[in-house]
Amino acid sequence: QQQVKQSPQSLIVQKGGIPIINCAYENTAFDYFPWYQQFPGKGPALLIAIRPDVSEKKEGRFTISFNKSAKQFSLHIMDSQPGDSATYFCAAPYSTFGGGTRLMVKP
Amino acid sequence: ETGVTQTPRHLVMGMTNKKSLKCEQHLGHNAMYWYKQSAKKPLELMFVYSLEERVENNSVPSRFSPECPNSSHLFLHLHTLQPEDSALYLCASSSVAGPGGYTFGSGTRLTVV
């Protein structure tokens, strides 16, 4: 049972573009929503996380937008760079991960 | 290093072999996890240890056997594996007190021949 649905599966943007990755969850008891970034040959690394008591959180060029009523949250990458090319996973408590989004940022 | 160290990084084994994967963390975390990551598939949770006790076994075949001797070490014992078991095996740790994110190791790339 997939409790977090992530889209799109893959995404290509030009350098400087703003890729947006979306996740939808089902369990209203979830109270913590992290995003992970994974480069080839490495394990996922925690990138940014949000709690449902706020609607937005920014860390550098990365922003999470949270919509509690819609049970959705999104990752935005401002001024994307080729070095941001990686696979991104959304997650929720109880070891719940989305299916991943493979992002390519073209120079 | 991320704080979670996995060895070996790469492993090739025959279907009749027995091998073990090792994971070590010194972050003061008290929960540890094994995940399987296959190409074009979501992360699959295999085992969870919380306070050194196994709390979840996600219907994993018995050819995978976990061991958690203390809060800093986690092993995955492998025997009579199948080619479809070839994947990246990831170890992660977290604090039970949470909520908080997981710290992952770099994984062991396993190839079963």
Quaternary structure state of the chains depicted: heterodimer
Task: Please summarize the sheet with the most strands of chain A.
Answer: 6 strands, mixed
Strand composition percent of chain B: over 45%
Uncertain stretches of chain A: none
Proportion of strand residues of chain A: over 45%
Q: Which value, in Å, is the CA radius of gyration of chain B?
A: 13 Å
Q: Which geometry of chain B do the CA atoms define?
A: globular
List low-confidence stretches of chain B. Answer: none
For the termini of chain B, the CA-CA separation is: 29 Å
Average pLDDT confidence of chain B is 91
Mean pLDDT of chain A: 93
- End-to-end distance of chain A, in Å? 38 Å
- Give the % helix of chain B: under 10%
SSE-based structural type of chain A: mainly beta
String of helices and strands of chain A: EEEEEEEEEEE
SSE ordering of chain B: EEEEEEEEEEE
User: Most extensive chain contact?
Assistant: A-B, 20 and 21 residues
Structure report:
- The complex is a heterodimer of chains A (107) and B (113).
- Chain A has no helices and 11 strands.
- Chain A has strands at 4-7, 10-14, 20-25, 33-38, 45-50, 56-59, 62-67, 72-77, 86-92, 96-97, 101-106.
- In chain A, the strands form 2 sheets. In chain A, strands 2, 4, 5, 9, 10 and 11 form a 6-stranded mixed β-sheet that branches.
- In chain A, β4 and β5 (45-50) form a beta hairpin.
- Chain A is globular and about 40 Å long.
- Chain B has 113 residues and is mainly beta.
- Chain B has no helices and 11 strands.
- In chain B, the strands form 2 sheets. In chain B, strands 2, 4, 5, 6, 9, 10 and 11 form a 7-stranded mixed β-sheet that branches. In chain B, strands 1-3-8-7 form a 4-stranded antiparallel β-sheet, with no helix packed on it.
- The relative contact order of chain B is 0.34.
- The A-B interface holds A 2, 31-32, 34, 36, 41-46, 49, 89, 91, 93, 95, 97-100 and B 2, 4, 6, 33, 42-43, 45, 48, 56, 90, 92, 98-107.
